[in-house]
Structures are given as structure tokens and as C-alpha cells.
Specification:
By secondary structure, the protein is of the alpha+beta class. It contains one helix and four strands. It has a domain at 3-49: YefM-like fold (3-Layer(aba) Sandwich). It has one helix spanning 16-33; strands at 3-5, 11-15, 37-41, 44-49. Strand 2, helix 1 and strand 3 form a beta-alpha-beta unit. The protein is rod-shaped, with a radius of gyration of 27 Å.
């Protein structure tokens, strides 16, 4: 095996042949740990397997441009109501 390993984790570098044999397992580990793996071919780094990081979107401004206000939403209404009921 041509792998360089960090203690107790995924291999940091792995040969293309070893990657081909263990691709699905490596993908699961990369997703689980968040680490990346460099794939080498004849000793040269040719690719990196890294987790996809989905950006966290803020709720602020999420509906901007999608909602339109019709009428007066700040003025008084013609309905009397009792908040204690």
C-alpha cells in the first residue's frame, strides 16, 4: 500500500490504484470526518477527495423580492378586539 496516514485518521495521500480499490469506503469516511484525501499517480498529486461544504444560509433577507405589501399595514383597523379573551 502506498498511503501516508495521520495517526488515527484517514490517509492523507493514497495511490490511484489504492483509491480505485477503496473509493466508496473513502467517500464515506471523508463525509463522516470532514478530512480530505490526496490521490497520487506515480508519486504526483493529481486529485483531492474533499467533503462538500454546504453554506449555511441566513434567514435574513430570504424573502426579499418575493413578498409584496398591498394596502396599509401600519394604520389602525376597523375591528375592535379584546386581547384577554
Amino acid at each position: 500500500m502506498n498511503m501516508v496516514m495521520k495517526p488515527g485518521s484517514l490517509p492523507v495521500q493514497i495511490s490511484a490504484a489504492e483509491f480505485k480499490a477503496t473509493c466508496l469506503d473513502l467517500m464515506d469516511e471523508v463525509e463522516r470526518t470532514g478530512s480530505s484525501v490526496v490521490v497520487t499517480k506515480r508519486g504526483r498529486a493529481v486529485a483531492r477527495l474533499a467533503p462538500v461544504r454546504t453554506p449555511v444560509r441566513s434567514a435574513f433577507g430570504l424573502l426579499k423580492g418575493r413578498i409584496t405589501v398591498r394596502g396599509d399595514i401600519l394604520g389602525p383597523i376597523d375591528v375592535t378586539w379584546d386581547a384577554t379573551k
